[in-house]
């Protein structure tokens, strides 16, 4: 069973930087598990900016959905991020919320059934005015339910606010 | 005067589940005070999903606006939620922010002038990008002001994040 | 070097009221540094409402961008707020995120290079669903990065939730 640190918070709240520092403090050879599907040039730019933040100590794995197919036993793994990973399930399930949630939970359970030190980055999406767009509203539900699911299993949970980690579970 | 626990947080952050567990730990026969006006099938589904989470111990009261007309002396009451209740005032006041806020505050004061143990669920709506839609922006103001009003009276306040209750006032 | 208290949170979460009380507790003659550019009648109303919250103890300075040109040595200064100040840079840079961020950081560094007690109000914009509008998304990035920049320098940071100050750095 994985030991999980869950890091959530708003966009541009410093989640990835904090997660990277944490991983580097725990391992000399951490694994970066990138879940982004490259949808457009904006995404490609963000991925490149994040890559340039990491030095040669990092091993990068790209995996859009099937996290569990990688054998990561006893490694320190930074999964960045749940939101992009869920987006891939949601898209491939034709925006069916229940189906995407079930597939993601099943895959997640398989993934964490190994001895890894897992640092998981996600996003808080529910504290703004609820979107008028139905797809966006469903995605916020998917994200919220998955966050609850992962946070319940996590040993430690941080909420990032303006770059400051606030420990909310330990 | 009511003893108030106020639970706020994002959409799908586990507010209602936490509130229900809290009510069940305090009473063998809690009251569920449902404030939803059934606007459409999406709302009807959410109401049914929440109902199926509650067992026969619960007594359900449906009340869109006039909370104070129910005599609830010495009961444990879960009011779910402030957002839907405010929506009804806002709609019936033709989206007049000041008028809706005044009516809601007046009704609220009457409601809490009784010896009940009150658990109140609300929403944080102000931590996203401010909406372009003026009605939505006004509603976020209404929600924010009412949250401040209730939280000031509350004995205990929780912020829910990814299913984790963070006590911010006690 | 300024001593900085940074206050962030959602819209209508009580940030300005809390900041004013804090300033009044620290000085008999605090300075209110207003950064709003008056774009429309809605803004004008908000400015007037905030002004009427302050009494004759307050000295008001209006400064849309060049905070550093005011000599404020040894005063208690409430800067309200970072969001409106950043909006002015973003607008005047034709919505160029990198350019606005660089100009704002440079100005900020000059501003805090004086012996003032600074109370800074900002906004959390990143915890809702990411906006579809590209300009809005860029502004949320700008705000998030500037919040991290200021919070890192701050001695004390509060997150306001429903009117309750939650100290997250001290």
From TrEMBL, chains A, B, C:
InterPro entries documented for this protein: CobU/CobP, P-loop_NTPase
GO biological process, one term: cobalamin biosynthetic process
Leader sequence segment: none
Reactions catalysed: adenosylcob(III)inamide phosphate + GTP + H(+) = adenosylcob(III)inamide-GDP + diphosphate; adenosylcob(III)inamide + ATP = adenosylcob(III)inamide phosphate + ADP + H(+); adenosylcob(III)inamide + GTP = adenosylcob(III)inamide phosphate + GDP + H(+)
Residues of the active site: 50 (gmp-histidine intermediate)
EC numbers, comma separated: 2.7.1.156, 2.7.7.62
Pathway connected to this protein: Cofactor biosynthesis; adenosylcobalamin biosynthesis; adenosylcobalamin from cob(II)yrinate a,c-diamide: step 5/7; Cofactor biosynthesis; adenosylcobalamin biosynthesis; adenosylcobalamin from cob(II)yrinate a,c-diamide: step 6/7
Superkingdom, taxonomy of origin: Bacteria
Sequence positions that bind GTP: 9-16, 34-36, 62, 80
GO MF annotations in UniProt: adenosylcobinamide kinase activity; ATP binding; cobinamide phosphate guanylyltransferase activity; GTP binding
Keyword list, A-Z: ATP-binding, Cobalamin biosynthesis, GTP-binding, Kinase, Nucleotide-binding, Nucleotidyltransferase, Transferase
Biological role: Catalyzes ATP-dependent phosphorylation of adenosylcobinamide and addition of GMP to adenosylcobinamide phosphate.
Similarity field: Belongs to the CobU/CobP family.
The protein's name in its UniProt record: Adenosylcobinamide kinase
Species for this entry: Sunxiuqinia elliptica
Origin organism lineage: Bacteria, Pseudomonadati, Bacteroidota, Bacteroidia, Marinilabiliales
């Amino acid at each position: 069973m994985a030991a999980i640190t869950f890091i959530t918070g708003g966009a541009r709240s410093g989640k990835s930087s904090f997660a990277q520092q944490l991983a580097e403090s725990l391992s000399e050879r951490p694994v970066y598990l990138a879940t982004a599907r490259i949808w457009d040039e904006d995404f490609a730019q963000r991925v490149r900016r994040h890559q340039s933040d990491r030095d040669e100590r990092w091993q990068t794995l790209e995996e859009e959905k099937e996290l569990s197919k990688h054998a990561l036993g006893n490694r320190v793994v930074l999964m960045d991020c749940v939101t992009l990973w869920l987006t891939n399930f949601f898209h491939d399930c034709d925006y069916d919320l229940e189906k995407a949630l079930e597939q993601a939970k099943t895959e997640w359970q398989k993934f964490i059934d190994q001895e890894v030190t897992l640092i998981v980055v996600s996003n808080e999406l529910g504290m703004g005015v609820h979107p008028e767009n139905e797809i966006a509203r469903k995605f916020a539900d998917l994200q919220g339910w998955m966050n609850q699911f992962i946070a319940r299993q996590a040993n430690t949970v941080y909420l990032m606010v303006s770059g400051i980690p606030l420990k909310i579970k330990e």
